[in-house]
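Project outcomes to date are best conveyed with an example. Our students and postdoctoral researchers have been running inverse folding experiments weekly, and each run begins with a structure described purely in tokens. The record below, which covers 424 residues, was selected by the lab manager from last quarter's runs and is presented without edits.
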């Protein structure tokens, strides 16, 4: 397999890589030559429902492990996609863990993610338009994936081919050990989030060998517009009452439902997308939601006939960065961050135990106002090479010592030195 540069005019670029404009193209991206992204219909992906359910479960589990005292915004879909990319290079127990978390294995997993990519691509658009001053008339849902490889690292052809075939992922090479070398990661993040997220969360490291990146960007208008925001009261978890900008829709028709004390309202966008706003039982933290509760509310809202309600909702402008590395064991992915040899990412490069996940970050932004919603998320998984073999003992020559030089065969003492002050 060889890699070729993506070149040519705007039309050619649009087929292979999404860019903000032809006047200011993004970094040069490589693709596996002769490999194209597979096309899979939703009806031809038998594991699709399982993958969707697993992503929902992954989302609430991650939310439950996040800081309980702060606003947290996550993209379960972005995290699931990044993990699915990693699964293409996992083997043994690491692969089994990923398959359990992702809800599907082997070709069925790949078909499900390819089908999702194809369905979401129907709403694709220019990331720059998604973050313009005015929301687009038609929703924009832009997704992108790539792998960035450290200079000189030999990655298996099969791994790169599977990333292109399933995720339409590009490939870049850079020096991941320096801040300057991370420039392609930063530029890719800015480009594919329309600037909502300004830079990669990955930190340079000489042990870093590859970074998997997934980005999702949303911009959509409400189907039923809200009235102008005004200051209204909001009660915090500790009972404190504060004032916050709140928008309202008086006697508008929305689908609504209640399940196990949770109240839910569905807010449709102009096309193909919707938001659900879920109110937990009084005194319960919203992160206490389970995947089953979300699934039951989703089913209830699907079946509900929209009716007139009086709805008020705070405007939102929040962003968060979640360090996922310490959460991986709690998500059922115990071997991946085990850089003592338990991780098996030998489908990427090397032998079992050579590589592990050393960095895992997700950045996300959510903006909601009277007109609609703008949101972005980037998930990044940094694959590192194990730092050094197990050390039996440590010797620090930090006080006076003896230094000798001898002949191997005869042990003839050629030099003998007492070092009492090594300064020179």
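After processing, the design step wrote out the following sequence:
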């Amino acid at each position: 397999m060889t890699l070729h540069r993506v070149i040519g005019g705007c039309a050619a670029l649009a087929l292979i890589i999404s860019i903000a404009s032809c006047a200011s193209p993004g970094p040069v991206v490589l693709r596996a030559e002769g490999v194209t992204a597979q096309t899979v219909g939703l009806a031809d992906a038998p594991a699709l429902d399982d993958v969707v359910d697993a992503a929902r479960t992954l989302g609430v589990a991650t939310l439950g492990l996040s800081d309980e005292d702060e606003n947290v915004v996550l993209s379960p879909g972005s995290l699931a996609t990044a993990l699915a990319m990693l699964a293409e290079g996992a083997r043994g127990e690491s692969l089994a863990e990923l398959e359990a978390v992702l809800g599907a294995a082997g070709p069925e997993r790949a078909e499900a993610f390819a089908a999702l990519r194809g369905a979401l691509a129907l709403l694709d658009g220019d990331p720059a338009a998604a973050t313009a001053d005015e929301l687009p008339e038609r929703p924009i849902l832009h997704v992108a994936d790539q792998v960035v490889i450290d200079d000189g690292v030999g990655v298996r052809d099969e791994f790169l081919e599977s990333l292109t075939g399933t995720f339409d992922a590009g490939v870049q090479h850079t020096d991941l050990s320096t801040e300057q070398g991370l420039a392609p990661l930063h530029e890719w993040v800015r480009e594919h989030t329309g600037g909502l997220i300004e830079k990669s969360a990955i930190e340079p490291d000489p042990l870093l060998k590859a970074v998997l990146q997934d980005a999702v960007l949303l911009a959509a208008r409400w189907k039923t517009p809200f009235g102008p925001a005004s200051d209204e009261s909001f009660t915090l978890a500790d009972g404190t009452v504060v004032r916050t900008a709140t928008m309202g829709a008086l006697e508008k028709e929305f689908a609504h439902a209640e399940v196990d004390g949770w109240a839910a309202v569905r807010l449709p966008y102009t096309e193909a997308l919707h938001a659900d706003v879920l109110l937990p039982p009084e005194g319960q933290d919203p992160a206490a939601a389970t995947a089953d509760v979300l699934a039951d509310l989703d089913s209830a809202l699907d079946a509900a006939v929209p009716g007139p309600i009086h709805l008020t909702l705070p405007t939102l402008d929040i962003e968060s960065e979640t360090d996922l590395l310490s959460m991986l064991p709690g998500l059922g992915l115990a071997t991946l961050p085990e850089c003592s040899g338990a991780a098996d990412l030998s489908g990427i490069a090397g032998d079992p135990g050579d590589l592990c996940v050393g960095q895992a970050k997700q950045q996300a932004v959510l903006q909601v106002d009277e007109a609609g919603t703008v949101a972005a998320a980037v998930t990044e998984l940094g694959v590192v090479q194990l730092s050094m073999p197990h050390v039996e003992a440590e010797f620090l020559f930090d006080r006076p010592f003896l230094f000798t030089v001898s002949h191997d065969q005869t042990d003839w003492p050629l030099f003998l030195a007492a070092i009492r002050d090594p300064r020179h």
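The longest strand covers residues 241-259. The two ends are 54 Å apart (CA to CA). The training component of this project remains on track.
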